[in-house]
Amino acid sequence: MSQSLLEVRDLAVAFRTYIGEVQAVRGVSFDLNKGETLAIVGESGSGKSVTSKSIMRLLAKNAKIRSGEIRFEGENLAAASERRMQSIRGSEISMIFQDPMTSLNPTMTVGKQIIEVLKKHRKLGGAEALAKAAELLGLVGIPSPEKRVKQYPHQLSGGMRQRVVIAMALACSPKILIADEPTTALDVTIQAQILDLMKRIQEETGTSIILITHDLGVVAESAARVAVMYAGIIVETGTVDELFYEAKHPYTWGLLASMPKLHEKTSELTAIPGTPPDLMFPPVGCPFAARCPHAMEVCVAKMPDYTAHSDTHSAACWLQDPRAQKAAAATGASLGGER
Amino acid sequence: MKRYIAKRIVYLVLTLFIITTATFFLMKNLPGTPFDEEKLALLTQDQRDQIYASYGLDKPVIVQYVNYIGNIVQGDLGTSIYYTGQDVKDIIVDRIYPSALVGLQAILLGTVIGLILGVLAAYRHNSGWDYAAMIVSVLGVSIPNFVLAALLQYYIGLKWGILPVAFWESYDSSVLPSVALSFGVIAIIARFVRTEMLEVLQQDYIVTAKAKGLGQMAILSRHAVRNSLIPVITILGPIVVNLLTGSLVIENIFGIPGIGSLFVDSIKTNDYATIMGVTIFYSAFYVVVMLLVDILYSLVDPRIRLGSGRE
User: Fold this and answer.
1) Among B258, B286, B262, B68, CA closest to B177
2) What is the ipTM of this complex?
3) Distance (Å) from the C-alpha of residue B299 to the closest C-alpha of chain A?
4) CB pair distance less than 8 Å for B205 and A103
């Protein structure tokens, strides 16, 4: 318990819209330990970004944390004042965004944008801050940083800009780095470089990382533990090995199956049939039931509890319920169970 | 940058030359003469020829044109016919001060208030502030400034007697016309800034700024407002020209001896030299302001590099 840097408990977030309330996150719980990388995986709209933004309290105005706690070193961020959040953001917890093309201010030199953080949290000013900004750019692998600090974002390539964003996030050596799809907008070759950079930084600084992604390839490469989100709920969580080799939830199976494989010569991609449920009217039972090839009556009627498979591995699926032991075994073997 | 500005100045001179030429010949096609026809009829042919000759109007139009261009190049705008014997350059200099003072005050007032309203409206989007600012904006656009001028004159000038109703006597005389003119500016700027701000506030880099731990004020002043101002500079160019060169209606209502009324009077009286002088002055002012706007643009937005490609 003392190891946990961040404990999220039963977090629920809803968005008010003109036609109703969207339950984007519906009771999410997870822990983040010191120095580890936790990946949150899921498709668009699964609530993974909303979860990460809730931690930083960066949600849009029409969003509201309905219930739950976000404990950072024991302090509940869900109830913290805006002032307190400002002192945490960029200093204790930092964030890297998806699109480096738009996440930097185009009319400000990258140096100034980094200095802003240093000024705010470290009270550094003038030459000292500029030197530190250049040092940070060097740290994230930008060549001739003294020259680059004086440049504007449009003078840098996409990969370079993402390095700047990372440098900015690292400026105050945060305890947690939240990376929201940090490589999605980048070329594949640059993606690997950025992931390597993040890995190296973690080794050097010991910061914990929450990696939000929909790319299982990225997960395999950089995370230690994974939480799979679907329709605002974590459906399965475990170590990378447990998830890739012993996945228990049919949704995780589907995700794994939909990864394109190089050694198979099929031209068609495997997809999970159907679409996620409408979160304005979330289903009472398991949200995946409608798309699940193994769905049972109970799945539609009642949300399953988490079943633990090891200290680190658990899944929310009726197939894993002790009372459904036989069915699980049967479906596991034949993938054709009806009941 | 330097090469770009040099190039622009060449174009600028060329533009002015074309405007001058076109105006000159169009003006010569105006019906009537600069003189009082009735009084002219009382004179002998000899005397009439003498008057024409003294203004150089006896020569063919093309010769007059060449002479005129020759004079302009030497900085001579000729002498007025209506204001007998006065140098057009002196008349313009005399008349520009009231117009420029009123215009400048209107722009400053309008821009500052417009900016505040626009920023407030965007920042408190869909709130009472927003609606109030937009109502002011719609009123500012739709109420003609002469209606407003009359209201100001009646209440502030006449009823309460705080400021002079009209005429150009002291600095106080410039306040009411400036206020009357500023409403239009407030309306345009507020609307523009609001739209731009709303867009900028949606940008990812605003979230980034927030994620850095910056407070609301820092985000607004350092990131949002500055970036919303870039397009505003574009509309500010024509507004500056319009107001600094005088508003005919406002100058008439308040009895201000400004350049707007000079221009209209010069056309009514066929005062050739004055028409040309004011036209050249207007156009020169316009193109110079436009050049300044473009330069300002590149200073505010580093993505715009004048005249060359990247870096």
Assistant:
1) B258
2) 0.84
3) 10
4) yes
Please tell me if residue A56 touches chain B, with a CB cutoff of 8 Å.
yes
Q: Which phi and psi (to 5°) does residue B120 adopt?
A: -60, -45
Pairwise CB contact (< 8 Å): B213 & A152 = no
Query: Is A86 an interface residue toward B (CB < 8 Å)?
Result: yes
Pairing, β A208-213 against β A225-230: unpaired
Residue A124 maps to a domain: no
Q: Please name the member of B212, B300, B303 whose beta carbon is closest to the beta carbon of A154.
A: B303
Chain B contact present for A102, CB below 8 A: yes
Q: Of A79-83, B32-36, B115-119, B177-181, where does mean pLDDT reach its minimum?
A: B32-36
Distance CA B145, CA B153 (A): 12
Domain membership of residue A256 (yes or no) is yes
Q: Which CATH number fits domain B90-271: 3.40.50.150, 1.10.20.10, 1.10.3720.10, 3.90.78.10?
A: 1.10.3720.10
Which of B200, B210, B212, B305 is best to mutate for the A interface (most A CBs within 10 A)?
B212
Q: Is there a domain that residue A119 lies in?
A: no
Alpha-carbon distances, residue B191 vs A110, B123, B240 (angstroms): 31, 13, 17
Which residues make beta-bridge pairs with A156?
none
What is the share, in percent, of chain B residues with pLDDT greater than 70? 98
| Residue that the structure tokens 């300002």 belong to | B296
Residue A53 vs residues A71, A166, A216, A294, B3: alpha-carbon distances, Å: 14, 17, 21, 33, 48
What does pTM read for this prediction? 0.79
Amino acid at B141: V
| Residue whose pair of structure tokens reads 């001028």 in the numeric block | B149
Spell A158-173 as b/e; 16+ CB within 10 A means b: ebbbbbbbbbbbbbbe
State how far the Cα of B308 lies from the Cα of B145, in Å rounded to an integer. Answer: 43
Residue of A nearest to B311 (CA): A155
Cβ neighbours of B310 in A, within 8 Å:
154-155
Is residue A100 one of the residues assigned to a domain?
Answer: no
CA distance A98 to A158: 11
Domain that holds residue A275: 233-318
CB A65 within 8 A of CB A85: no
Partners of A108 on chain B (C-beta within 8 Å) are: 222-223
CA distance A299 to chain B (A): 39
pLDDT tens column, B216-251 = 889 998 899 888 888 888 888 888 888 877 678 888
- pLDDT per residue over B2-54, tens digit each? 888 888 899 999 999 999 999 999 988 877 777 777 777 788 888 888 888 87
Q: What is the number of structural domains in chain A?
A: 1
Token pair, residue A295, equals: 């769905």
CA distance B229 to B241: 19
